Amino acid sequence: MIDRNDLALSVRGLRKTYDNNVTALKGVDFDVTEGDFFALLGPNGAGKSTMIGIISSLVNLTDGDVKIFGIDLATERSLAMRQIGLVPQEINMNLFESPRTILVNYAGFYGIPRDEANRRAEEELKRAHLFEKADLMSRTLSGGMKRRLMIARAMMTQPRLLILDEPTAGVDIEIRRDMWKNLREINRAGTTIILTTHYLEEAESLCRNLAIINRGEIVLQGPMKSLLAKLDVEGFLFDIESDVPETLPVIEGAVLTREDEHTIALEMPRTMDLNEVFNVLSSNGIKVRSMRTQSNRLEELFVKLTAGGSMNQPEASE
To answer: Most buried in the list 37, 102, 115, 265, measured by CB within 10 Å?
Structure first.
């Protein structure tokens, strides 16, 4: 059994009830090992933001305890907070300052000498691919650049635990993937990362372990690969050479549907041999030109576990 003091984060019996009697967390337990890239997932209103707020000392807990690298948040809050870098959802920096100034001033708040702050700022700006923009006014940066700057700012204190709350929200896929590369680099260098995101393909691509929270309770947690392996259905899209026929062949145990005039969707048990499907299609004169996965596996798992939750419900006001 792992000692809680050896974990990057250990949460036990975490409860939060707001003044309006809304209970956001109902006795949550979960652990994050040192060096992990961990996904904390759930629909809006599930309790994610409250959890992040408590861990980062922005929200007071009602009951339970939090340990950060073995440091008790309640009794040694200042020391615990020095282990954490937080990247919130909102852009919360002075956009009339340059990226370099933002980073150096942030380091100054934590007592980092100016020479060292300048050295770290140069290093983080290069890692975030922002060095060429270092001395421009930050309001001229694109949305994706501003998000990368927020990550660079959090890294100025060289945190052992980096918490990312929807870090790629609102940026296009190309910028998002560039940010993924940056985050992998940070994690490989030894920083433990906790990620909340609504882009489930992002969590599946980046994270090794996850917890799914719904209505204030953890409904599933464990290694990403082993949890996804439990899904018993998978989907594919077939691009075919001719038009999709009006009547599709019947395959026992599987479902074929028309996606568009040249695409057929397939849903089948993972135990079924895909060659069986190809044989039936071929015997019915349907020639497959290419095939791709239909859906994100983590999304399937997420939907099953949070059925009834909403991606658009507001979380309890803090």
So the answer is: 37
Query: Cα separation of 304 and 276, whole Å?
Result: 28
CA distances to 46, 68, 107 from 18, rounded to whole Å, are 14, 24, 33
Give the C-alpha distances (Å, rounded to integers) separating 307 from 8, 25, 233, 303.
31, 18, 17, 6
Nearest to 163 by CA among 256, 237, 249, 83: 83
CA angle, 57 as apex, 56 and 63 as ends, to 5°?
110
Alpha helices in the chain (DSSP H): 48-55, 77-81, 99-109, 114-127, 143-155, 173-188, 200-206, 224-229, 274-283, 297-305
Closest CA to 57 of 94, 83, 25, 21: 83
Report pLDDT digits (tens) over 199-247. Answer: 888 898 999 999 999 999 999 899 988 877 766 677 889 999 989 998 9
Contact of 278 with 288, CB cutoff 8 Å: yes
Place of tokens 């948040």: 73
Strand partners, 210: 39, 222
Crossing angle of helices 173-188 and 143-155, rounded to 10°: 10
Q: What one-character DSSP code corresponds to residue 268?
A: E
Tokens of 1: 């059994």
CATH topology match: 4-223 vs 229-301: no
The CATH number of the structural domain formed by 4-223 is: 3.40.50.300
pLDDT in tens, 282-315: 999 999 999 887 656 677 777 777 765 433 333 4
Nearest-angstrom CA–CA distance, 161 and 8: 7
Query: pTM here?
Result: 0.77
Picking from 270, 272, 243, 276, the residue whose alpha carbon sits closest to that of residue 259 is 243
Q: Residue 143: what are its φ and ψ, rounded to 5°?
A: -60, -40
| Inter-CA distances, 314 with 65, 82, 165, Å | 26, 30, 15
**Domain map (residue ranges) of the chain:** 4-223, 229-301
